[in-house]
Amino acid sequence: MDENLGSAMDRYAALLVRNGVNLQEGQSLRIVAELEHAELVRLVTAHAYQAGARYVHVDWTDTPTTKQRLLHSRREFLDYLPDYEVERHRYMTDHEWARLSLAGPEFPDIFADTDPNAMRRVTETRGRKLKFYMEAMMADRMQWCVAGAPTRAWARQVYPDLSQEDALAQLWRTVLHVCRADQPDPVAAWRAHSEAQKRVIDFLSRHAVRSLRFVDPTPAEDGRPVTDLTVGLTDRPAWVGAAAVTPRGVQFLPNMPTEEVFSTPHRQRTQGWVRVTKPAFPFMREVNGIYVRFVDGEVVEYRAEDGQETLDQLFALDGARRLGEVALVDVRSPINQAGVVFYETLFDENAVCHIAFGQAYPGGVDGGADLPPDELDALGVNRADTHLDVMIGSEAMDVYGTCADGSVVQIMERGRFASQGLEQE
Q: 137 with 21: CB under 8 angstroms?
């Protein structure tokens, strides 16, 4: 790796600590990473201690080891999660540890030959027993950030025509670019990006948008538009951009990169059908060509061109047939302009508009982070054992907002924010 790239990686590590999780002096940090992420983890750890971290703990993951359980465990043991796992997550929640998760598959297709039912059972058990931890994250009661960390295998997947080393260097350059870490002042670049998102949020709030209609007029085989989906929001919608804020007033970036402005759907107010425009990865398995139809907020029909069995297992999870998120992303985002499929949801979801099946973010409801579960339920906020983003946007997509007074405003035209005060950077 050349010296310039190494220097940019160090700036990136500092950005993850100072802006991503915005680690506070005396706060502890948990890092979740694959073994191949070690070089970046060491840089992040150094910057964390320089920022005054009390303690840094790394949860190293090794995907082939995880796979052995799915292949060889006795079926009755798949529902087991040790009590100590629950207790350490509760400790980290109670003591407000920040969390940084590095996303970048070391073994992209490793689960292609595993039983999706086994994967569902393990995921379901972990999600149920650690729901308090997931809910604390999604309610922004702790700082958390998911960020990209290139690996050799991932680089070859994204850039198959390059040599291994050239692909890795190119993926690093791309990741640093879309995360604004290659700019002279990354902090100022993120500030400008947040201001651009704020203009979109102000427009949506000012017009009191209560539902979003996504229309891709490209004709399907039956002559209908391939997508005509209306997503109704709660009665107290809030729009969220790049930054989030903890109850203590600490601002952080949950995703890096991020291009989305999102809100929380009402679990009973989604109607119509949608074609997913990029690969999806439930249980870390690739599924392509997804079509879904909703009635009164619930998935009543679905199919996949490739990966149907995995999709079956996803929709067998409690709450997975209803939406937990709807997000607007301009097709001019640097991620989409990179011109590649990243095969990593963190990046691909920030290329175009998307929805998410499953657990909802309380932050998408006005004052939602402070509401107890029963009040969130009453507002129509979905609860589930999963949260899976799928991309639905395209350069043919138009998006319309229905306002509280019944009027309609155009929000996007052919995948781009319309010119009604929605100019992007």
A: no
